[in-house]
């Protein structure tokens, strides 16, 4: 039996397990590509974090639920800026 999409590829496997990429229903326009770029950016940022013993999926969930941890990841991705300074109000 041959699989249609091999899951042995490391990046695809990680994106599928951590972000459930295969269940994403974004299909119209550029939305699928935009979500893919966003997922890869977040994965790279979470991998850069040092000192955490949590797995990647757990870190993603933790960032979703903990504002302080989420801001530390944003500061890791964009050093020298604070999250609140980058927001512009009309």
Shape annotation: globular
User: What structural class do helix, strand and pairing data support?
Assistant: mainly alpha
- Estimated helix fraction: 40-55%
Order of helices and strands: HHHH
Organism: Candidatus Accumulibacter vicinus
InterPro entries: Transposase_11-like
Protein name: Transposase
Walk me through this protein's architecture.
The chain is 54% helix and 0% strand. It has one domain. The mean pLDDT is 77. Helix 3 (56-65) crosses helix 4 (67-77). It is mainly α and 90 residues long. The longest helix is centred in the middle third of the chain and has 18 residues, at 31-48.
Concise overview:
The chain is mostly helical and 90 residues long. The chain is 54% helix and 0% strand.
